[in-house]
């Protein structure tokens, strides 16, 4: 059996809840990405901070979650959909690791925008990996939805 890692960034707990459900169903190791500077808990202020970072291509330093991925073959990468792409802490994680030969499975939470560019951005950064179809969840995470998705992509427990 291959080792599975579920790595995610979550500001308002939505992506965390999805990551926890994936970990529960796969038995994978969960790892939260924590940037060295937290975003504002006020939505409008956080949105301005994030938009500025994405526009500049800024990748914050991670103080937690950036440990080695060498022992994992399958890596679920989770992010909120922020301005149609990955949250900057997730991009930091991706840019700091070599995913060659690994299986990458994206997941995101959103407020109506779906994946937008997230899957393509992950595929571009992890070009030497096998990228499986991800799941984009709007609202409450339903365990049945995750189960069906894992079956659809052929994830074996």
From TrEMBL:
What Pfam families does the record tag this protein with?
Flavodoxin_4
Example GO molecular function term? oxidoreductase activity, acting on NAD(P)H
What region holds the Flavodoxin-like domain?
3-153
InterPro entries, from UniProt? Flavodoxin/NO_synth, Flavoprotein-like_sf
Q: What is this protein called?
A: Flavodoxin
| Lineage of the organism | Bacteria, Bacillati, Bacillota, Clostridia, Peptostreptococcales
């Amino acid at each position: 059996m291959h080792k599975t890692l579920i790595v995610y960034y979550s500001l308002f707990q939505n992506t965390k809840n999805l990551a926890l459900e994936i970990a529960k169903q796969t038995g994978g190791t969960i790892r939260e990405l924590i940037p060295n500077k937290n975003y504002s808990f006020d939505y409008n202020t956080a949105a301005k901070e994030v938009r500025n970072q994405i526009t500049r291509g800024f990748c914050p330093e991670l103080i937690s979650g950036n440990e080695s991925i060498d022992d994992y073959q399958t890596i679920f990468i989770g992010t909120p959909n922020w301005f149609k792409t990955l949250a900057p802490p997730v991009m930091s994680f991706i840019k700091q690791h070599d995913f060659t030969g690994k299986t990458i499975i994206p997941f995101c939470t959103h407020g109506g925008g779906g994946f937008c560019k997230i899957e393509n951005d992950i595929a571009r950064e992890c070009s030497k990996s096998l990228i499986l179809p991800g799941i984009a969840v709007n609202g409450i995470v339903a365990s049945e939805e995750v189960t069906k998705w894992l079956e659809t992509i052929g994830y074996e427990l």
